[in-house]
Write a structure and sequence with these properties.
The chain contains 18 helices and nine strands. It is an alpha/beta fold. Helix 6 packs antiparallel against helix 7 and helix 11 crosses helix 13. The longest helix has 30 residues.
Length: 440
């Protein structure tokens, strides 16, 4: 017999009633409850429906008291019980509105226990079905537990009132801080102006032909994000470079020391001083690196779920990645990885930057600047990505041309705004890019 199916789900109806009763006694306490609870945290139907009305009223700035709330509940027509009698009962069971935070925490804890029980039942049921192997089962179980940790219900419809409240809070935070954009800065103001930064749940593709410097640009972005958001973790997954090589290039960029010196060890006293300062800057960030050349998207997702306050994920690069599953051909494999990365960005609620190579079609044209159709192997890359950035450097194709160390970052696709081109300056001695305007 399955113990989960016979488990009496945890709830505290009195605490639920006390939360709503407190709001009836003092409408201004609704904000305290809404910081802790959402309507789905209530077990009792009537309590859940009344609190949903409270959420809507609070979101639209309507005054909340016993009279206005009763009127809105009647208009909604969802509460099946005798509304007047039930409101009197709510007021009777509430000792004082001043303990509303304590009541709300009890309700939240009961809701968490119910979700844990439901997740356990779901995991047990999937094992009993025998339709998946142990690796898939572990991924499923981890995803369920991660959802609980993030207070995010999976496979549920979310009331618009909940989304409005989240959006309202986000807009207030931006207004309070005076932020000029919604996402994490790339360190390149003109690019940030086009994309509004690196936004939550976005999949960003950074594409170029080999040898143009997409790894260098990605490291620039990772380092800039880590320095400007020191409380957030930035993870860099490299499938072609060792972690020592990655950190060496970051130190070269931060210290403005020729990268060759870090390979040979021929450093002057001034170089050692600058290197020490750069090492202190990097050590103060929450930059994390991984150099597993056989890692898959599912494994990256599993690792990132365990990181507190994750801000940004970078993957270098797509064509080297292990699919983590059987695929009939490379086209299907890339399509699957593309979809997995987009789902990962949405689940973790962070921007995910993935580097990828462009097809040889770009070098066979007279104008070798990248276009969307150059994305190798799969049209799903273009479809799943929110932003596609194409990196181009003229002297990589025309060494004898007039342009030297002059690059272009072309915004080929942008769900947040317009496309355009950002002029870059390549600094080969430091293996780094900067915006052309910043160079001078």
């Amino acid at each position: 017999m399955d113990p989960i199916s016979n488990l009496a789900l945890p709830r505290d109806i009195t605490a639920e009633q006390a939360v709503i009763g407190s709001i009836l006694l003092n409408g201004s306490s609704a904000g305290d409850a809404l910081e802790i609870l959402r309507s789905e945290d209530f077990y009792h139907d009537a309590n859940r429906e009344i609190f949903s009305v409270i959420q809507t009223m609070f979101s639209y700035g309507k005054p909340i008291d016993a009279v206005t709330l009763l009127d809105e509940v009647r208009k909604a027509g969802t509460v099946k019980a005798n509304t007047d009698d039930y409101f009197r009962q709510l007021l009777t069971v509430t000792p004082t509105w001043r303990n509303i935070t304590h009541y709300a925490e009890i309700v939240r804890d009961m809701a968490r226990l119910r979700r844990i029980a439901e997740a356990a039942g779901s995991i047990t049921g999937k094992i009993a079905d025998g339709a998946v192997d142990s690796a898939e089962m572990l991924e499923f179980a981890e995803r369920k537990i991660y959802s609980l940790r993030q207070e995010k219900a999976s496979n549920e419809l979310v009331p618009v009132a909940d989304v409005i409240q989240e959006l309202w809070d986000h807009l207030r935070d931006m207004a309070d801080t005076g932020a000029a954009m919604s996402g994490i800065s790339t360190g390149m103001p003109r690019l940030d102006n086009l994309t509004m930064g690196l936004n939550k749940s976005d999949l960003i593709l950074l594409a170029s032909r080999p040898g143009i410097g997409k790894t260098s640009l990605a490291l620039n972005i990772a380092l800039s994000a880590a320095k400007k958001e020191p409380d957030k973790a930035v993870t860099y997954f490299s499938l072609e470079m060792s972690r020592e090589q990655i950190v060496a290039r970051m130190l070269s960029e931060e210290a403005f020391i020729d990268g060759k010196k870090l390979i040979t060890g021929r450093l002057s006293a001034d170089d050692w001083r600058k290197l020490g300062q750069a090492a202190s800057v990097l050590s103060a960030t929450k930059l994390m690196v991984n150099d597993n050349s056989m890692i898959s998207v599912l494994e990256i997702n599993a690792l990132c779920r365990r990181i507190d306050n994750l801000g940004l994920v970078l993957i270098d690069y797509l064509q080297l990645m292990n699919t983590g599953a059987k695929a009939e051909n490379r086209l299907q494999a890339v399509s699957e990885m593309s979809r997995q990365m987009k789902l990962m960005a949405m689940e973790l609620k962070v921007p995910v930057i993935c580097l990828c190579q462009l097809s040889r079609a770009s070098v066979q044209r007279e104008n070798k600047r990248p276009v969307l159709s150059d994305l190798r192997e799969s049209g799903s890359l273009e479809q799943d990505a929110d932003i596609v950035l194409g990196l181009y450097r003229e002297d990589a194709f025309k060494p004898d041309g007039a342009e030297h160390n002059s690059g272009e970052l072309i915004v080929l696709k942008n769900r947040h705004g317009e496309t355009g081109t950002v002029k870059l300056q390549w600094m080969p001695e430091y293996t780094t890019y900067v915006e052309a305007e910043d160079r001078y």
